[in-house]
Amino acid sequence: MLREGQNTVVLRADYQPPAYWIDSVDLTFDLDPQKTRVLNKMKLRRNAQVPAQPLRLDGEDLNLARVLVNGQGTSFKMENGKLVLENLPEGDAPFDLEIFTTCAPAKNTTLSGLYTSNDSFFTQCEAEGFRRITYFLDRPDVMATYTVTLRADKQKYPVMLSNGNLVAEGDLEDGRHFAKWEDPFKKPSYLFALVAGQLVAREQRITSRAGKEHLLQVYVRPGDLDKTEHAMNSLIKSVAWDEARFGLSLDLDRFMIVATSDFNMGAMENKGLNIFNTKYVLASQATATDMDFMNIESVVGHEYFHNWTGNRITCRDWFQLSLKEGLTVFRDQDFSMDLAGEASARAVKRIEDVRVLRTAQFPEDAGPMSHPVRPDQYLEINNFYTVTVYEKGAEVVRMQQTLVGRDGFRKGMDLYFQRHDGQAVTCDDFAQAIADANPGSQLAQNLDQFKRWYSQSGTPRVKAVGEWDAASGLYKLTLTQSCPATPGQPTKQPFVIPIAFGLVTRDGSELTSGMHVLTQESETLTFPGLQSEPVPSLLRGFSAPVILECNYTDEQLLTLLAHDSDPFNRWEAGQRLGLNRALAFLREPGLTRNDVRLDNAFLSAMQAVLRHPQLDAAFKDLVLTLPSETYIAEQLDVVDPQQIHAVREGMRDQLAVALRDDWEWAYEQNKDTGAYVPESKTAGQRSLAGLALMNLCIAARKQGDAVWPGKALQRFKDASNMTDRFNALSALVVSGHELAQQALDRFHAIFKHEALVIDKWFALQAGAPDRNGNILPIVKQLMQHPDFNVRNPNRARSLLFSYCAANPGAFHRADAAGYVFWSDRVIEIDGMNPQLAARLARALDRWKKLAEPQRSAAREAIARVAAKPDLSNDVREVVSRALED
Ligand code: B3K
Ligand code: ZN
């Protein structure tokens, strides 16, 4: 017998339409932190397409008080936590079902369903949180209209919000009041939301292109209002962009965003009432970095864009999650690119997105949690809000656009809405619409094969081999694709891979360019009539989410770095140069950080980029940043994280010292950006100045000079914005200078009342380079800090995830203490917040690649978690998959 809420594996192949439809829901809440009463009045009817059967309603952690059918008491039973009604009226006529339950929001530490945070009420229903509020058919293909009445103490909860429009409000007895909301649109239960508490709003009225008026509101706690301007501006831009780019207008009179500091993820697209993590709403130049400002813009955009891609057209079942998430990430990426402006800033955004894909999604796709963009099974759906579903899913949408062109893609989107507005559909429906709107396109011609991107997991590899025949002037390029076995998928069929390419001469001029769509396992392209052997520039703009293997010589890479007309591949060439060196150092047994010696060719290439008169600061910053430890690790079969850390640090030391004068020049050139404006050009300069300062402090440490650390401390003190201040602080912490502690203390003192800044303070210390195992004791000590609170996800992430998931050199200790610490935290957090615990559990996904003794120690730590009785489905799924052969 299963306990309540405990699932068995759910299979995509088992999908059945619901046996009943719920057409309307009328909810009344008496809000009380200890005991909230929920009266749920629904109109249901049988789904005539499905054989007659009992009604099985989902529910979790509810106290059931009453069930009435058409106003009469009825028999019911509980089965595996589900409420089962067998004696329902015969026939197809609609009937009323009334359910009265209570729940305890203040005790709800899962942050799913209805919970309290800082004395306010919030909900989170995606994916399956609505069943923690009332009994329901909690699945996305059951769409209903909602009327919601909220009642609560007026003083404690002056603001009461739900989806849609406010239709009535007023006072009740005993100091209570009510608000009644109606959402005109049918929606699945995961988009339901309510908020109640002491909140204030920034408001803005806008008129859409279509001439309609809308009220936009951003709700925060009193005191935070001055940090909402950027979020509001981002929302206004999002509304305008979706109208301009896709002809999609805001369909509600009122659109609200509410911020909460206790939230499991970034934000949630509830219809008309988006709920956000404060991290993606609150920003001022004093408290937020350029990166924070950028993230706010893209998350506000993302949630807003869901109003069409997700809310108006939703998912038939959770296996189709990428239908809304991949598409909406694609849309938010495109939005941010359009706002970034000119070509170079667009390329920077593309590089940043690809960096995320390669350092997070590629490892996921090569590890035990590997799954297709449209997964085939899950134990806990919350575990599948992954970089694969989101970021790889976005790449799959991007490739469809590439195959039909930008205008063709717009036509496809139009057809998608024409066909499916108001429906719950599948990834197949989406791809079909894009293809049908573009008959004859490469997508339409290869649609079935293209859709393998949805069904096959694993990162495809494309091997490119060039052959040059000097006598005939013929260049042949053979492209061969393969895809490694992944869990449950031993063999793969070829993908449709769009490969944007160019051929470049050795002195950098472009001979030709184009797009080749690779569909066979192996294909050879021929280019006759060339004067000399060209350098191939392949996968321009990262035209497909694959690993490109090409045995470039250093000389070829230097040509591409210096001349490629495609900025992405220019950056990529620099990364390959760095990566090849890191891999060579790693092959040298016993090499230490101080033995690392970079060659002049590499150093002068980096110097040339740094000093380049035309290149943008943001682009220079990306080129001058070495491939991450995680990315380097992915290239190896056996990983020694500490050795990778030593090699990368050694390379960084060398770059710092050898280019010291150039760093100084770059710092001076970029350090002053005038009055703070969070936009790409000056943000790029701040970021390059920050990198330069870091390198100058590293060089100073190597050379025993105190000038630059002193300057960094001064900049830290004088900075007028958080970006410069935090970069200066990081330079001291990362270079390990003794002034760091003083600066950290001061930073804490200045910002002790700014939770999001204190998160940065924790994260910086937990993510700092390890020196003789010093980070774990620091992390343990910080857990005792009065500001640490493991129940707050942002704080837990800032300390624990920064250490376990983002600091490999410090975490993968030979004495296994990092892993023991990890297992203790996973178990501890699982007791209160399974979703958060499962995310932390993923930190050891790649344990099988570790060298000994880490490999055995990691396995033991995972087994220790797995052996724990009463684990959540969330953590159980992650650790048991990790232990599978
Ligand atoms: N759709 C939400 C994520 C919900 C996560 C549930 N565990 C945010 C987003 O992708 O926009
Ligand atoms: Zn989303």
Element layout with pairings:
Elements: E1 10-11, E2 20-30, E3 36-46, E4 55-57, E5 63-69, E6 72-73, E7 77-79, E8 82-85, E9 95-103, E10 113-117, E11 120-124, E12 143-153, E13 159-162, E14 165-171, E15 176-188, E16 194-197, E17 200-207, E18 213-220, H1 229-246, E19 254-260, E20 267-268, E21 273-277, H2 290-306, E22 314-315, H3 321-340, H4 343-365, E23 377-378, H5 387-404, H6 406-420, E24 424-425, H7 427-436, H8 442-445, H9 447-450, H10 452-455, E25 461-469, E26 474-482, E27 497-504, E28 510-518, E29 522-527, E30 535-538, E31 547-550, H11 554-563, H12 567-587, H13 600-611, H14 617-623, H15 629-634, H16 641-658, H17 660-670, H18 680-703, H19 707-718, H20 722-734, H21 739-751, H22 755-766, H23 775-783, H24 793-804, H25 808-811, H26 817-830, H27 834-841, H28 854-866, H29 873-883
Parallel strand pairs: 2-12, 18-19, 19-21, 22-24, 25-31
Antiparallel strand pairs: 1-23, 2-3, 3-9, 4-8, 5-6, 5-9, 7-8, 10-11, 12-15, 13-16, 14-15, 17-18, 20-21, 25-26, 26-29, 27-28, 27-30
How would you portray this structure in words?
By secondary structure, the protein is of the alpha+beta class. An 8-stranded mixed sheet has the order 6-5-9-3-2-12-15-14, with no helix packed on it. The protein has a 5-stranded mixed sheet with strand order 17-18-19-21-20, with helices on one face. (3S)-3,7-diaminoheptanoic acid binds next to β20 and α2.
Q: What keyword list fits this structure?
A:
29 helices; globular; 885 residues; binds (3S)-3,7-diaminoheptanoic acid; five-stranded mixed beta sheet; alpha+beta; 41% helix; binds zinc ion
